[in-house]
Amino acid sequence: xxVIPDNVLDVLAEPxxxxxxxxxxxxxxxxxxxxxxxxxxxxxxxAFADVCLGKTKxxxxxxxxxxxxxIGYEKKAYQIKCKFVHFDNRTSIFESWYDAVYERxxxxxxxxxxxxxxxxxxxxGLDLPV
Length: 130
Hints:
Elements: H1 6-13, E1 18-24, E2 30-34, E3 39-42, E4 45-50, H2 55-63, E5 65-71, E6 77-88, H3 92-104, E7 112-123
Antiparallel strand pairs: 1-2, 1-5, 3-4, 4-7, 5-6, 6-7
């Protein structure tokens, strides 16, 4: 496993940062979703809510591959490659997220919390005009 560096943790913690989660199925068909519920459990482990993941959930169950892209307020961007571990719907993690997700996501019910291990973290280049 890899460790998420402090500068990337800072961007992940920014309320204004945009977080995207990409998966791919076994046929190589990509899928990307905005994932506002992303949370760092430890510097080596992330989690996000399963409210209506659909294709994302199916892809994770097929091969466990996922990549998180995050763009911060100061236009810093990072890519976090992960390996899916499991969907949690029985432990204290699920219990602590349940009410918060319901209130934050317009009364949508939390089905589970996806847990993934961090494999690699890299800076994503942004070719933005200066």
